[in-house]
Amino acid sequence: MADAALRLRSLIEQVLGAPLPVRIRAWDGSQAGPPDAPVVVVHHRRALRRLLFKPGELGLARAWVAGELDVEGDLYTALDLLAGLIWERGEDARTLGEALRDPEVRAAVRGLVRLGGPPLPPAPPEEEMRRRRGHLHTRRTDKRAISHHYDVGNDFYEIVLGPSMVYSCAYWPDPDATLETAQRDKLELVCRKLGLTPGQRLLDVGCGWGSMALHAAREHGVSVVGITLSQEQAAYARKRAADEGLTDRIEIRVQDYRDVRDGPYDAISSIGMAEHVGADRYLEYARTLYGLLAPGGRLLNHQIARRPQRDETAYDVDEFIDAYVFPDGELQPVGTTVALLERAGFEVRDVESIREHYAHTLRRWVTNLEADWARAVELTSPGRARVWRLYMAASALSFERNRIGVNQVLAVKTPESGASGMPLRARTWN
């Protein structure tokens, strides 16, 4: 009799101490759970072994990337239903060690071991970042982490991001606008906040595929130096600049921000880059950018933020994101970012939250990926495409539920005279 799904559901509920809100279909064809709920398909019992050897998010992620777990029905709904059991148990939730003190939980785990088959740890999927010992956020480790994420293939990113090739939160005054229009509006918003005028010098830190550099040079007449650690991004950005006849105003470098020596710049944009800096290096990052600006120069720092914790020392990097998406990336509360920018010498003049805008952007990216799924798989791998689909869908929900946010922080290197050059009226960007 095929009953793996019923046994699996019962054992998982004993371990979690709560009912499972999704339906399960197991490798033997059996099903169990609410009939109208999204279906979590366990294609292979190996998925259980992954969970047993790496309980929690990383085990689930490995099974998903390997294609041993899937979802039928709406992925967003399934993730939302599971979030309360897996990702949002709260700071006071019992640990696995505490749960295993319960004899019923220990018995359920033994049942999962028997159901999972041979007690051998499966090898991680090849898409997982292989860890090396040593310090984080050195020039070498940062370059390796950036390459893992961004050197996936420009053709793949064209599928996900669309023609704009902007890999950061779009700006949606009109929610029915196209993704390309919303990204153009975001780039224009950044330029207006920076107060760009013809003849100025702009440093674009983490320039990606060159979209900000192109917009600023074409629409505002500035000279731009864009820096990235990704060889593929740099080659793509240089070609775009050449195709538009802007090579006299745009220089793209493969360079670490710590190695830029040709200031001063009139303005600096850092859009979706600071998440890679790391908490221990953030003050250095802020001081470096401060030193590269001319007096009165502006910094626009566009950065994802997490919610503060009661005990900040207990913050752990998201295991799935760290292993498969942004290795060594770290998030911090927006208040910490503002404080560190001020410690570096900046005067912070405006903080704008655009959290809901990122949720909308991510859903558009998921739609793009799903619409051209076969080609995305062909360009990368089934596992890599699955990584991007899961991380973007889960991230969209995180922004919608206020688990994380994104903020544009405008700061000025205000001279001793106090003349900031900013407009008197807030949010009137000149």
How would you describe this protein?
The N and C termini lie far apart (72 Å). The strands form two sheets. The protein has a seven-stranded mixed sheet with strand order 7-6-5-8-9-11-10. The chain is built from 17 helices and eleven strands. 44% of the residues lie in helices and 15% in strands. It has helices at residues 4-16, 46-53, 57-65, 75-86, 96-99, 103-116, 139-150, 154-161, 179-194, 211-220, 231-243, 282-292, 319-325, 334-343, 355-371, 373-379, 382-400; strands at residues 23-25, 31-32, 39-42, 69-72, 201-205, 223-228, 250-254, 265-271, 293-306, 347-353, 404-412. Strand 5 (201-205), helix 10 and strand 6 form a beta-alpha-beta unit. The chain is α/β, with parallel strands linked by helices and 430 residues long.
